[in-house]
Amino acid sequence: MTHDVDCLVCGTCVADILIRPVSLATPVGGGTLIHVDPIDVTTGGIVCNTGIAMRRLGMRVAASSLVGADQWGSLIRSRLEAERLDTTALTVHPTLATSTTAVLIDPGGERSFAHHVGAPHAIDIAFLRGQLGFFAKSRLAVIGYFGLLPSLESVFAEAVTAVKSAGCLVAVETAGTGGDIAELAPALPLVDIYVPSLDEALHQTGLQDPRAIIDCYRGHGAIGLLGVKLGTRGTVLSTAAGEFIEIPCISAPGPVADTTGAGDSFLAGLLTGILRGLPTREAGLLGAATAACCVTGLGATAGLRSFDETLMLGKQKT
Asked: CATH 3.40.1190.20: does it fit domain 5-23+38-315?
């Protein structure tokens, strides 16, 4: 079958209001006036973060989510279309507002969030089934964030089964606490790519060692590409039981401005490498390089670079 799209990213999309610098160590307090840099509005959530990153890396990408009939939904659609993502599957919810987040960023790039869940909260299996025609056009589907899609997670195995019936590979991304392993585990044998962060994996499994975490997922029947993102300590990937690949963290090619979206950017690079047929280690290094570029810009996408530039950065570690 000929696919029109390399990756359809389905799940959370957000309008992000970026506010910096804000001290995260000192309480704001009532009535306080904080002088900040010019406030910017950008996009966030996996649909925007991973989708735009993959598009910058040369992939054909489509967006699937729910937005509100409001200015923020229009902003998200226009930003995605400006990046040349297919927004045909981006659906307006009749009553719920677009998901929005105020991102408070300290001088070192760390951040806290004030978040309104909004329309993506309503993404459920009926929504996915209604979009199977779009999934069928794609080589790969990303579903996320597990942990922030409560209407979907109680039937997650059924949802992944439905998406795979369309003929595409499935990657899953987590956020928040990472969700409940009891809801994730039945889907793991069906998932082709799953690389949560250490904090999310710790919440799911109770384990801190990344290899033990991966073994735990294997014990639940996972047979795909697994991994654990370890922040500045890199990433551990596993292509099969007992096999582990260490992916180092790559230094940012410029001053660190904001760590928002680094994990989503890693996923984008990893998936791009896989879709381009790179060996797993090289795909992982492309992911690390994409994350390194991401943190040099304010927001999740301003620091992203082209495929060739990002690949060259990753090759410094080969």
From this structure: yes
Edge-first strand listing for the sheet containing 40-44: 40-44, 14-19, 100-105, 111-116
**Domain boundaries of the chain, sorted by first residue:** 5-23+38-315
Can you say how many angstroms the Cα of residue 153 is from the centroid of all Cα atoms in its chain? 17
CA distances to 12, 162, 184, 206, 286 from 238, rounded to whole Å, are 26, 26, 18, 19, 16
Residue with tokens 């950017």: 265
Provide the token pair at 272.
């791009």
Contacts of 170 (CB under 8 A, 6+ apart): 140, 141, 142, 143, 160, 163, 164, 190, 191, 192, 193
User: Tens digits of per-residue pLDDT, 131-182?
Assistant: 999 999 999 999 999 999 999 999 999 999 999 999 999 999 999 899 999 9
The answer to whether 232 and 249 are in contact (CB under 8 A) is yes
Amino acid at 302: A
The structure's pTM equals 0.93
Phi-psi region of 58 (alpha: psi -120 to 50; beta: other; left: phi over 0): left
Identify whether the C-beta of residue 276 lies closer than 8 Å to the C-beta of residue 270.
Answer: no
